[in-house]
Amino acid sequence: MQSLFASYEPQQHGVPLDGVVVREGTPADAEPTGRLAAEREGDTPARWADRHAHKLADGDHRLLVAEAAGEIVGHGWVSYLRPTEGGGRGAPDGWYLSGMVVAPGARRRGVGRLLTRARVASVLEHDDAVYYVVSASNRASRDLHAELGFTEVSDDFVLPGVVFGADDGILCRLTRDAFARDAEVVDLAEHRARRSADDPTG
Fold first, then answer.
1. What stretch of H or E contains 131?
2. How many domains does the chain have?
3. Residue 1 covered by a domain
4. Which residue did the predictor score with more confidence, 196 or 46?
5. What is the tens place of the pLDDT at every residue in 67-102?
6. What residues does 131 pair with on adjacent strands?
7. Distance (Å, rounded) from C-alpha 183 to C-alpha 112?
8. Residue 3 domain-assigned?
9. Average pLDDT for residues 183-195, to the nearest whole number?
10. Could you tell me the residue range of the domain that residue 123 belongs to?
């Protein structure tokens, strides 16, 4: 099965894509972003476009898109989640980064970083913190977010609707004060492995 994510090769970078502009998404973007989502996730572009249109009409979701030469080359969402209302635990209410997709030809060219910074900045303009969750095995994403100042704060949480295949989810937080500064890196995946080695019974 083909992975949804590029393999972890931190030294591999393409030529930065020139002229990329990140802007707030509009209803007109539902169709092109739906095509990108369908290409990576499967299902039809029309169904993804419909999902995106519904999310754009909901005040709990905001879309940012990256354009180059008049073409959308990536997009990402921020969503206001209320975990405890849905039966979750250990994760606070707040704005969470989610659903970033970059077109194949624009990957490893700085688009994902621009989208992530823009989404973070859009939240921290009016909130004190922004969150995201990630699988411990997704090293590339963890490194990118750590560079921006995200701290891994918990590996013991339940976020309704989010399932990690290896039960290896990590909750991360970035505060306004820490944005774009070097942050203390807490590697919760290594902590988990150490705990398991010390206590084989779990």
1. strand 129-135
2. 1
3. no
4. 46
5. 999 999 999 999 999 999 989 999 999 999 998 999
6. 96, 173
7. 20
8. no
9. 48
10. 21-198
